[in-house]
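Quick one: Lipoprotein signal peptidase from Candidatus Cryosericum terrychapinii, structure tokens please.
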Amino acid sequence: MMNRPSALFRWSVLVALMILADQGTKWLAGRFLFQRAVTAGPVGLVLTMNKGVAFGLFGGWQWVVPVNAVLGIGVCVAAIIALHRGDRGLAHGFFLVFAGFAGNFIDRVVAGQVTDFLWVRGWSVFNVADCLVTAGAILCGLALLFPNKWGFHA
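--- reply ---
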């Protein structure tokens, strides 16, 4: 059986490192991509500011930040419960989602907008936090759909 307090500590450190990576890349993007873009075919680095949530939805709506806070806390609690139950695949997915949420939440609270800079032709511009949320959601889905293979049960 897994030592859950040490697993929770490890995940806390990993989440903090993921948030730092997100915030660091956003800082670098703001510093080096201001008024210029770097593209190479269908991908590139393009600095944009997003006042809304996913794909700019609900931009300027004051209730977005507190609702996001409640949802983020819910995801964190779900991760801890899944870890405690031994559903490690689900817990890992929730921790990735929480790290991404926290990275973008910091932007919303500090600057009132989220820094996006990763561009893929045909998609919106996104950031490291968005990648974490997406990867976490995929892992949660796999853990729920295929628990014997992706559930990592302890």
